[in-house]
Structure formats: C-alpha cells, structure tokens
Specification:
The chain has 153 residues and is an alpha+beta fold. The protein is built from six helices and eight strands, in the order E-E-H-E-E-H-H-E-E-H-E-E-H-H.
C-alpha cells in the first residue's frame, strides 16, 4: 500500500494555487492517479487530498449507506460538501477552490503533510497549534489508539 510521507512548508498564491513540493509530486506518481480529490476534513480545519483510487474506496463505503435513513443522508451531504477534483498543472501546482481555502483558513504560509493514503493541507499557524500536544498527552493518545494492535497482524 502506498502512503504519503513527509511534512512540507509551502506557499499558496492569491489565486489559490499551491506549488506542490517535488518530493510530494514524486509520491503522487506512485499512486498512478492523475486526478486528486480535495475535501474538507471531518475533524480539523484543514483539507484532505485523496488520490482518485483512495477516494473511490471511501465512496464505496459511503455508497453502502441507506440514504432513506435521515442521519445517513445528512452525513453524506456534509461529508461531500465542497468536494472538488484537482489535477496538477504543468507548473506542478494544485488549484484550491476559494470555499475550501476559506474553510481551512489558508493564508500565504501553509503546511502539506502526509497522512497515509492521503495528505493534508493546513494553514501553517493552525498546524503548529494542533501538533503542539504535550508529550504525556501524546503518549496516552498513542497507547489508547495503537495499544490494542497485535504486533503480528
């Protein structure tokens, strides 16, 4: 399975174009997708960028939900709100729509960080705040999230 790795400080221009770092472009090529899906994060004020195949897996799960159950229909509507397709242009830039940039509070200075089969786009100041968790708090979180996994799985 391919994963995006690394954290990159970048800039976004006034037209919403993000110059993607060459190391990340190389990783994008490993996924074999030209198109990427950009969406609002569910839990944070950042954007998530999925290769098309990874997005198809997510939508496969979503499409199994019964839309005649109101909470499912509400979830699907909000989850897919603002979703955009994007491709790198010839200069290696990714266009971020104005509504998505506003959602994530993207200013000039941004951070792009790998998050498994997707990568996230953050306003630099917001990213610094969210990762400045106390060591003891992070150790507790790591134990809670990862402690149940068997090493041999």
């Amino acid at each position: 399975m391919n994963s995006f790795i690394g954290t990159y400080e970048c800039k976004i221009d006034d037209k919403g174009r993000l110059k993607v770092p060459s190391a990340l472009i190389k990783q994008m090529e490993n996924f074999g997708d030209k198109a990427f899906i950009v969406k609002r994060s569910v839990f944070q004020s950042c954007l998530e960028v999925y290769p098309a195949r990874a997005w198809d897996k997510v939508m496969g799960k979503i499409n199994k939900l019964n839309r005649f159950i109101k909470k499912n229909a509400d979830f699907i509507r909000v989850f897919t709100a603002g979703v955009r397709t994007a491709e790198l242009d010839n200069a290696g830039r990714l266009q971020i729509s104005k509504d998505l940039a506003n959602f994530a509070g993207l200013q000039k200075e941004i951070v792009v960080t790998g998050a498994g089969e997707l990568f996230e786009i953050w306003d630099k100041e917001a990213y610094e705040k969210v990762i400045s968790i106390d060591e003891a708090d992070f150790a507790s979180l790591a134990e809670e999230v990862m402690g149940a996994f068997d090493e041999e799985e």
